[in-house]
Amino acid sequence: MDAINLTYPIMSTMPGNVRLSTWEYQAIAEEVLGVLKRGKSKNVLMLSIEDSLPHNVKLSNFELNQMADACQEAWDRLNGPNFIVKTYNDEGRYGGCGYFETLTDAIEYKIRQEDCDRVAKVYRLVEFEEVQ
Question: In this predicted structure, what is the pLDDT of residue 40?
Fold first, then answer.
């Protein structure tokens, strides 16, 4: 993940009456990215956002909290599991699943499961896909 991916969550949660330049948004995103990479707590993330804001911009704790949540969610989405492999026995009964970050790992798991005479299917976890 890079700072560009964090710029949108920061921009979208910034109050409407605050106007910042692209450079200022990217500077905030760089600070936030450093905190996320170190795995610090939410309070440290909020302080990092507050410290990286221009001196004339003050946000409430609620606004900082919203921004920190949006950044953490974007981080988790990019660094979390992206693929799932579901396994079934010969009769078609569900046998379990495994979550993987990369397609390569998911395919390797699928091949191992198929070597054990199971049927395995790889699915991509998609955000905002409607379930019917």
Answer: 84
Residue 4 pLDDT: 84
pLDDT at 1: 67
Q: Which two three-digit tokens encode residue 111?
A: 């091949």
| Both structure tokens of 37 | 């990479």
Domain co-membership, 67 together with 21: yes
Q: Is 30 in the same domain as 69?
A: yes
Residues 10 and 72 in one domain: yes
**Would you give the DSSP letter of residue 129?**
P
Residue 92 structure tokens: 């078609």
Cα–Cα nearest to 95, from 76, 114, 78: 114
Q: Alpha helices, DSSP H only, in 39-129?
A: 42-52, 61-79, 103-115
To the question of pTM greater than 0.85 for the whole model, the response is no
Task: State whether 9 and 72 are in the same domain.
Answer: yes
Note down the domain range covering 88. 83-124
Contact indicator for 81, 70 with CB cutoff of 8 Å: no
Residue given tokens 């979390």 in the structure block? 80
Rounded average pLDDT per 10-residue block, the chain, 132 residues = 84 90 92 89 91 92 92 81 86 86 88 90 71 52
How many domains, the chain? 2
